[in-house]
Amino acid sequence: MSQNTKASLLRAPGEVRNMIYKAMIEDLPDERSWLVVLSLAGVNKQLRQEVFSYYFTHAAINMASTLDLDELEILLDTVPNQLGWQVITKVGFPDFLETALSRARADQLMLFCQTATHLQELTFNIRLEHMSIN
């Protein structure tokens, strides 16, 4: 197939690309959708901007572990704020006590949330079996 006849996602109208990004977020499990986001972001600058902007605006970012937070912070520090930190609207902690293993780690999680300046939804799940009452 010649270079001119290859299908290109960028040739599709923006509305169609947004439908693809929406399906990527809604139809794939979190860990798979994140891999697709990273793959698309690596194609070129335009796709990187579009996919990050759409993903961080529409997806709920779930911090299931401290590793998730570290990796996400590294990624967000490599993209312009208007594509990352400033467009995150939803953050969740599926097991907050497991993720925030220490006071310092809990402070880091809260700092992450404060850095996401357009955050609209913050969800904490606390599993009672992890709590100890003295």
TrEMBL record:
Superkingdom of source: Eukaryota
Q: What is this protein called?
A: F-box domain-containing protein
Q: What is the lineage of its organism?
A: Eukaryota, Fungi, Dikarya, Ascomycota, Pezizomycotina
